[in-house]
Records
---
Amino acid sequence: MKKTFLIIAASILCNSSFAQTDKTFENRVALLFGTNQLMVDGFNIEGNIFFKRLAFDYSHGVSLNLDNNLLSGAAKDQGLAVHLPYTTGFGVGYRINEWLNLRAEPKWHKFELYYDGETQNSTNQIASYRTFTLGLGAYVTWLPFKNKENLLRGITIAPSLRYWPKVSDTIDGSLDYDSQITGQTETHDALEVGLANTPWIVNVSIGYSLTF
């Protein structure tokens, strides 16, 4: 999967059909809010700067809650729930054209473990740890009202596909704990940050952008 993603990215970069001169690119700033984070009771804000062919971003997600139904594998079987107080980082990338850009993205994440259904506080917390991911993201910038001569023209919709593999963590890969659910010593492996404990993330952000 990782090789496939890299091959696709390289092919897009090399394909002359995407070629544009720097003069055809609008310089733009955008403020966006993630929609997927709202579905897990969290919040995400992202700022973008597009300058000629370059793309820069900083994003910060807070208070993401993954109950047991959203987990998979051992974490699900052990009756856990996961809270992410933050997931944060930046991206630097290249604009293929006005609507598509690729970014390299270092990100930091904090995970807190609880038993599913329990109040999430310091007393009930099983353990916590941090991970660092380094990956790629493919982003679409769609301005559905770009040709309007009013405030609607800045409305921005940004679907994205991201591959954020975990490259390090603060528990050396795993931790052991005495489970109140199973009555045994269980092992928890440091989680990936994406869908179903994978590095893959699909999201749609909505916001507003201005040219400069």
---
Amino acid sequence: MNVPTPSLVFFADAQIEVGAPQEAGRGPHGVRRLIPILAGEFRGNGWRARVLPGGADFQLLVSDTLAELDARYMLETDAGERIYVVNRAVRAADPQVMAQLVRGVAVDPSLVYFRCAPSFETASKSLAWINERLFVGSGVRTPDRVLLKLCEVA
């Protein structure tokens, strides 16, 4: 029996505008931060959606080289359909690079491992297929936004 080898199919490019971090400080698991999600846009093949304000990226700075991210926010397509997004990610880099990222300084994206596994949930009949697929992506953090390239695992 042949087991299919997964492949990646382009799903969307995204840019997400973020606000100033709110930091709770170092707790037993690391430094907790909340990054407000303000706006943005997703662009796929034949579709577009805006990022609605009100979401947030809940971050845990586990060590001086590793951050675990858990972003939750809502999209609205041009057709008015809503999509709930949960995007879990890992961002890792050398301590000096991570310190710059935490301070909001732009860094060379090639120095940072930023990978994500978003999931999408919608009540839309035309988009129902996204409820039943796995997605992965890569990201870049700039001082005021996050850029994502997302692919469906086919």
